[in-house]
Write a structure and sequence with these properties.
By secondary structure, the protein is α/β, with parallel strands linked by helices. The chain has four domains: 94 residues, 3-Layer(aba) Sandwich (GIY-YIG endonuclease), CATH 3.40.1440; 163 residues, P-loop containing nucleotide triphosphate hydrolases (Rossmann fold), CATH 3.40.50.300; 149 residues, 3-Layer(aba) Sandwich (Rossmann fold), CATH 3.40.50; 71 residues, Alpha-Beta Plaits (2-Layer Sandwich). It is built from 16 helices and 23 strands. The strands form five sheets. Strands 8-9-7-10-11-6-12 form a seven-stranded parallel sheet, with helices on both faces. The chain has a five-stranded antiparallel sheet with strand order 2-1-4-3-5. A five-stranded parallel sheet has the order 13-19-18-14-17, with helices on both faces. α1 packs antiparallel against α7 and α15 packs antiparallel against α16. The longest helix is centred in the C-terminal third of the chain and has 16 residues.
C-alpha cells in the first residue's frame, strides 16, 4: 500500500533505537510528494535527533500537529505486513525490543535496486524426496512442513527439493549452521544452478551481503544459501525454506535476543504460506512434538554402522582407549588411512560421577546434572554428597583433546597425530572439516550422554551420528564408540541407526518434568541481585516456578519454568526495560539449549 495522493497521510514509525520504550512507534505525517510503504526505511526527528526508523503502518487522519518524515532512505521495503506479523510475535516470545528484531530484516547498508539478471534454466535431474510437497509449492500452494532424516552430503537432497520450485520461478532459502558448511554447500550447488545461487553470511563483507539481499529481495527465482541471519530476509516470492541441522547450536543466537532460526522460519511459513523442510540425521524433540512428518532419505539407517566398545570389559587403568580401539587405530595408520579421534571436552561442560558407585552427580532439588561445584548451576541448591551412596569424591567424564593427543603420540609412529596427519584429534567444531575417514573413534560417549544438560541425550545422539557420518563408504571402514554403559538408550539408538524411539521416550519423560517442548523455560542473567529476586517471583506468581538465583561466573541466574510463559514474558519486558535503564547488564535466554 502506498500514498498515491493525499491519503494515507500518517505513518506509524518505529525508531531504530534498542529499547522497549519505542515498540509502539510514533506517528509522523507523510509529505504529499513522498511515497512510503510498510517496511520502508525512513529518517525521522526524535527528541532533537534525526534517527532511522521503520514504517509499520499507514492510515489517514489529521496530520497537522505531527512532525513530518524527513526522507525515505530506501525505496525497497525490508519487510511487508505478513513478515511484520511474525516479527512482532518473535519480539514478544524472545523478550526483545521490536526495533532490534525489525533491524534483522535489513541488510548492513541501505538496499539498492539491482537490475534483474537472466537466470539459467533449471534442469530437474532427480525426483524430490517429498514430491507431493514440491508439486504444491511449484504451483504456488502451501504445503505441510516435513523433516528429511538422512546423512550428508546434503547437496543432492537440496537440489531435488529446490529444482521444481526454482523452475516455477519461485525462490528457495537454505539455512546452514556454520559458515564453512554454507560455503561448501553453495560451491556444490553452483555447479547445478549457476547464477541462481546467492550466498550470504554475517561474516561476509557488508557490501557483498547488501548486494545479495537487494538482488534476492527484488527478483524471484534465486537459491539463497546462508547462515542463520538469512532466516529474516524478505526473499521475493519465497516458495521453500530448507533448514539443515535445525538442532545444532549454530542455529540459535548466543546473545539476547536468543532467537532460533528454525522458529523464525516455522512462524514465517505459517503466515507467509511457503514450504518448510528440515534436514538432518536426528530431529529435535521440538520437531517430533509438533507432529512434523519424518521422511527417511535412506532405506535403512540414518547413519553408517557403528561398533560399540564396552569399556567394562577392560581392566582398570589410565588409558583413554580400549585395546580394541587402539589396535584399530594402529592398523589404519599402518596402511596409510585416516583416523578421526573424537572428544567432547572442548565446548562442553564435563559431567561428574561418583568414584564409589559410578552414579552421575545430580542436584537433589531439580535433578540437573552437576559439575564439581558446591552448588547447582541451575537452581543454586547445595549439592553435597552423592545422592546414591553418600560418597563425596567425583571424577569427570571424558578427557581433553590435548591429553588424548599426548597419549596417542606414545602409541603410534612419530608424526602420526595432527590435523594434517593420519590421526586427527578433534571436537565438534572440527566436524565440518572432516569427511571420508577410514576410522572414527569416540573416546567417551558417556561424557556427552550424561552432560549437565537436560537435552544431553538427544544432543549426544545428534553429535555421535554426525561423527559416524564422517566415515566414508567401503569395506573395513567403521565408527567405534567407547562407552561404559552399552545398554544406555542413546547407545541403542546408535546401534539401530534410527533416532525415533529414543526421541519418543524422551518426549514422554519431558512431560513429567515439564521441560521443553512439554513446557517452557526462560533464563534470566543479571550482574546484580538486590531486589531483583522478589520482582521475578512476584511476576511469576502461581503461573510459573522460579529456580535461583544461582551464581554463574560472577553473574546471578534465575530459571523460570511453566506450561505457558507468555504472560510472564510480556510482564518481563517492563522489568528488563527498567533494569537496563538503571545500567544493569541483562541477558534473557528464551528456550535455552542448556541449563
Amino acid at each position: 500500500m502506498s500514498n498515491t495522493g493525499p491519503q494515507p497521510t500518517i505513518a506509524q514509525v518505529v525508531p531504530a533505537v534498542p529499547t522497549f520504550a519505542v515498540d509502539d512507534g510514533f506517528s509522523y505525517s507523510v509529505p504529499p510528494d513522498m511515497t512510503v510503504t510498510v517496511g520502508s526505511i525512513v529518517r525521522v526527528p526524535l527528541g532533537g535527533r534525526r534517527v532511522r526508523g521503520y514504517v509499520v503502518g499507514l492510515r489517514s487522519g489529521d496530520a497537522d500537529k505531527l512532525k513530518p518524515i524527513l526522507r525515505v532512505s530506501s525505496q525497497t521495503p525490508v519487510f511487508d505486513g505478513r513478515l511484520l506479523e511474525t516479527l512482532r510475535s518473535i519480539a514478544i516470545h524472545y523478550v526483545a525490543p521490536l526495533p532490534v528484531v525489525l533491524a534483522k530484516t535489513a541488510p548492513p547498508n541501505l538496499p539498492g535496486r539491482p537490475r534483474p539478471k537472466r537466470l539459467p534454466d533449471v534442469e530437474i535431474d532427480h525426483p524430490s524426496p517429498v514430491p507431493a510437497l514440491t508439486d504444491q509449492l511449484a504451483a504456488g500452494r502451501h504445503g505441510r512442513a516435513h523433516y528429511l532424516l538422512g546423512r550428508k552430503p546434503w547437496d543432492g537432497a537440496v537440489a531435488a527439493l529446490a529444482a521444481p520450485v526454482l523452475a516455477a520461478g519461485r525462490s528457495v532459502l537454505v539455512v546452514m549452521p556454520s559458515l564453512l558448511e554454507m560455503e561448501a554447500l553453495a560451491d556444490r550447488l553452483d555447479g547445478m544452478f549457476g547464477e541462481r545461487v546467492v550466498r550470504a553470511a554475517s561474516a561476509h563483507e557488508a557490501k557483498a551481503v547488501t548486494a545479495a539481499w537487494s538482488r534476492t529481495a527484488r527478483h524471484p527465482g534465486h537459491l539463497v544459501v546462508g547462515t542463520r541471519e538469512v532466516a529474516f530476509w524478505p526473499v521475493a516470492d519465497l516458495g521453500l525454506a530448507v533448514v539443515i541441522g535445525e538442532g545444532r547450536k549454530g542455529m540459535k543466537e548466543k546473545s539476547s535476543p536468543t532467537i532460533h532460526a528454525r522458529e523464525v522460519l516455522r512462524r514465517r511459513a505459517a503466515v507467509e504460506r511457503f514450504g518448510l523442510v528440515l534436514v538432518g540425521p536426528v530431529p529435535t524433540t521440538e520437531v517430533v512434538a509438533a507432529g512434523i512428518p519424518v521422511v527417511k532419505t535412506q532405506k535403512t539407517r540414518a547413519w553408517p554402522l557403528v561398533e560399540i566398545v564396552d569399556r567394562n570389559e577392560e581392566p582398570p587403568g589410565g588409558s583413554f582407549f580400549a585395546s580394541r580401539s587402539m589396535a584399530a587405530i594402529r592398523a589404519v595408520v599402518e596402511r596409510g588411512g585416516r583416523v578421526l579421534v573424537f572428544t567432547h571436552r572442548r565446548g562442553y561442560a564435563p559431567a561428574f560421577r561418583c568414584t564409589r558407585c559410578r552414579l552421575v552427580r545430580t542436584c537433589p532439588r531439580c535433578e540437573a546434572r552437576a559439575d564439581r561445584s558446591p552448588a547447582c548451576g541451575r537452581c543454586g541448591t547445595g549439592l553435597g554428597a552423592c545422592t546414591g551412596c553418600g560418597g563425596e569424591a567425583f571424577d569427570p567424564l571424558g578427557a581433553g583433546a590435548e591429553r588424548i593427543a599426548e597419549q596417542l603420540n606414545r602409541s603410534v609412529p612419530a608424526g602420526s597425530v595432527g590435523s594434517e596427519s593420519p590421526v586427527w584429534v578433534g571436537t565438534e567444531r572440527d566436524l565440518p572439516s572432516v569427511a571420508d575417514v577410514d576410522l572414527a573413534v569416540v573416546v567417551d560417549a558417556d561424557g556427552l550422554i550424561h552432560a549437565p544438560n537436560y537435552r544431553a541425550g538427544e544432543d549426544a545422539l545428534r553429535l555421535l551420528a554426525r561423527v559416524a557420518g564422517t566415515v566414508g563408504s567401503g569395506a573395513g571402514r567403521r565408527c567405534m564408540i567407547q562407552t561404559g554403559r552399552p545398554d544406555d538408550p542413546v547407545i541403542g539408538a546408535l546401534r539401530h541407526g534410527d533416532p525415533m524411539e529414543l526421541l519418543t521416550a524422551t518426549l514422554a519423560e519431558r512431560a513429567t518434568t515439564r521441560l521443553p517442548p512439554a513446557g517452557e523455560v526462560l533464563v534470566i542473567e543479571l550482574d546484580v541481585a538486590g531486589g531483583v529476586d522478589a520482582e521475578i517471583r512476584e511476576l511469576a506468581g502461581s503461573r510459573a516456578e522460579v529456580f535461583g538465583p544461582a551464581d554463574r561466573a560472577g553473574r546471578h541466574r534465575w530459571m523460570v519454568q511453566g506450561s505457558d510463559l507468555r504472560p510472564f514474558r510480556i510482564g518481563l519486558r517492563r522489568l528488563v526495560h527498567r533494569w537496563r535503564d538503571a545500567g544493569v547488564r541483562v541477558r534473557i535466554d528464551v528456550d535455552p539449549l542448556e541449563l
